[in-house]
């Protein structure tokens, strides 16, 4: 079986309403600085994540008692015996210093030749968005979850 070309994949992505919505969510996440080492934007990004996950039906807790807020988003299966899958992720990034080889503004999501560039796309805002997109598509197309899914997101992973 041949894989679709890059152009076919991009066309399918552009026609996917859910993927486009979460692309805009990722664009917003990338634009929001969340740098633990400089204590920048952590509460703002945690609140934004709480809002996004709430809209999809998660039971959300944003715990602001830590140096960087901790966000828990729980999606419940109707099955009382369902197992739970936990995704650990972080929303903070390292500083985007001037000595790094950025060709574009690191806090502006840029797409070039089918690749996305922006501070946090790969570590770890893009992963949060990708998992949430997949979960949203599953709920929309299939319905009830067969398992409970919990997202644990913190803003101090890049502190070491």
From TrEMBL:
Gene Ontology CC annotation, any one = cytosol
| SUPFAM superfamilies in the record | Zn-dependent exopeptidases
What sections of the sequence does the record tag as coiled-coil? Answer: none
Q: What is its EC number?
A: 3.5.1.14
Q: Name the domain of life.
A: Bacteria
What GO molecular function annotations does the UniProt record carry, in alphabetical order?
aminoacylase activity; metal ion binding; peptidase activity; succinyl-diaminopimelate desuccinylase activity
Against Gene3D superfamilies, the record matches this protein to: Zn peptidases
Which keywords, in A-to-Z order, does the entry hold? Hydrolase, Metal-binding, Protease
Q: Which residues cross the membrane?
A: none
User: For this chain's UniProt record, which GO biological process terms are given?
Assistant: lysine biosynthetic process via diaminopimelate; proteolysis
**Designated name of the protein:** N-acyl-L-amino acid amidohydrolase
Q: What is the lineage of its organism?
A: Bacteria, Bacillati, Bacillota, Bacilli, Lactobacillales
